[in-house]
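USER: Please consider what follows.
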Amino acid sequence: MSKHHVNGNPIIVIVGSILILFVLIFYNAVYIVEPGSVGVVVRLGEAQPEALEEGVHLVIPFITTVKPLDIKIKKAEVKTAAASKDLQTVNAEIVVNYRIDKNNAVKLFRDIGVNYLATVIEPQIQESFKAGAAKYTAEALITERSDVSAGIRESISSRMQQFGVIIDAVNITNFDFSQEFNRAIEEKMTAEQRALQAEKELERYKFEARQTVETARGEAEAVMEKAKAEAEALSLKKQYATLELIWLSAVEKWDGKLPTHLFTAAPPIPVFDTQSNTKSNTDSNTDTKK
């Protein structure tokens, strides 16, 4: 029995070794690429020209390794400083959204490696901002921020294209200037606001003056129209007036009282002296009685 037991041990060892070897080979021959990634195949120290897409892949075990590269959109935040066109020191915080072009992942791995963020992306962001800031005054960097961001994005994209990195967006989240410059900006804005207020007041005064002129012009035109109408009416009266109409108009306006004086001479001549007439009548009556 002991002989059979001894003879059986090598078989078990061999079978177990074969099973272990098979598991190791299978484990090293199968590689899973996670979603949003590609796998760079390195065989005997040489990067293969084609990267592995996401999913399950079979590779040659022991002589092949796979280096994963994340191709999802990622964010780089960089704090940098530059000099503006008017030689003002500008501190900025820049956020860049980038991703690796999967078709150039192998080239990026060969040329730079996996530490591409610190190696090329951050330095290129800083360099592009310095070049872009030098084209604008410090004030224009604030008022034309969207144009500045677009220019920096274009510059970074052209620089990173050779490395297989795609720049999706560039945002300048903060600008910081010296206290002296900030104070000068505040004073300028205050002066501009005052000038704008004064301009508005001037426009209001001009508007009110135009209203006054238009009102006076309207009133003058109304007076002229009235005078014109009266003149035309008088002209018509003169044109169609006759002696009979004049007498008729005088009779219509007469109040029934006879005039007592004529004013054609000086002093006026009495037409009817009612007092003298009354006195004469009284004297006549007295003489008659006598």
About this structure: The mean pLDDT is 80.
